[in-house]
Design a protein that fits this description.
Blueprint lengths: L2 H6 L1 H6 L2 H8 L26 H32 L5 H23 L14 H11 L2 H13 L5 E8 L5 E7 L9 E8 L6 H4 L3 H8 L5 H7 L3
Antiparallel strand pairs: 1-2, 1-3
The structure holds manganese (II) ion.
Length: about 230
């Protein structure tokens, strides 16, 4: 899938920071300043499952740092291209992958959560429920595997449900940090942040408690929208 096709899909456009889609639509260089997206709800909205202080720090400090880090890395790579000095290209390429991964995954993470009264929690229905059952045996088995994968993330990382393009399968993988151990040719449709900053204030080292609470705010309708058409 080329970039134009990717941007044309509603799912991709919904996850893209506005500045990026606007730039691409104008036919300019697709590289631009990345911006921190607004949350689709208040910091307090996911209480009591995810506390407001964690949400505020996570969004305004941690996600912001990934946006800034991605902008910095891309600016340095552009400078290297202009000066034809690629001595630090490995360093900045790694930074671009790390911060770019963080920006993309957090943008996804905020969107697949919602307050319980506004679409969060409950059980998946329709196409998504059918696909989860076909791929994992049942929704319950999917949730067990996803929870186990998340709890078992070594150090800082994520559990991610991917929609694979080649055969339409749903697969669960872990990501170390924001960008390692992933695969290609898939669309991430559901992700849970297992970095300590996502849960430590409220749950300390009890990852299972964090996940038990987190399932109450998963926005299944958004997960279904994230599936590749
Ligand atoms: Mn995070």
């Amino acid at each position: 899938m080329d970039r134009r096709t990717f941007l044309a899909t509603g799912t991709a456009a919904a996850l893209m920071p506005a500045a990026l889609t606007a730039s691409a639509a104008q036919g300019d260089s697709p590289r631009t300043q990345h911006t921190l997206p607004s949350l689709p709800y208040e910091y307090t909205a996911l209480e009591p499952f995810i506390d407001a202080k964690t949400m505020e720090l996570h969004h305004s400090k941690h996600h912001k740092a990934y946006v800034d880090g991605l902008n910095k890395a891309e600016a340095e790579i552009a400078k290297a291209r202009e000066s034809n000095d690629f001595a630090l290209i490995e360093y900045w390429s790694k930074k671009a992958a790390f911060h770019g991964g963080g920006h993309a995954l957090h943008s996804l993470f905020w969107n697949i959560m919602a307050p319980p009264a506004k679409g969060g929690g409950g059980e998946p229905t329709g196409t998504l429920a059918d696909m989860l059952t076909a791929n994992f045996g049942s929704v319950e088995r999917f949730k067990k595997q996803f929870t186990a994968a998340a709890i078992a993330v070594e150090g800082s990382g994520w559990a991610i449900l991917h929609h694979r393009h080649s055969d339409g399968a749903l697969i669960i993988l872990q990501a170390e940090n924001q960008h390692k151990l992933t695969t290609w040719n898939t669309t991430p449709v559901l992700a849970v942040d297992m970095w300590e900053h996502a849960y430590y204030l409220k749950h300390q080292n009890r990852r299972a408690d964090y996940l038990a609470a987190w399932w109450n705010v998963v926005n299944w309708q958004q997960v279904q929208k994230n599936l590749k058409p």
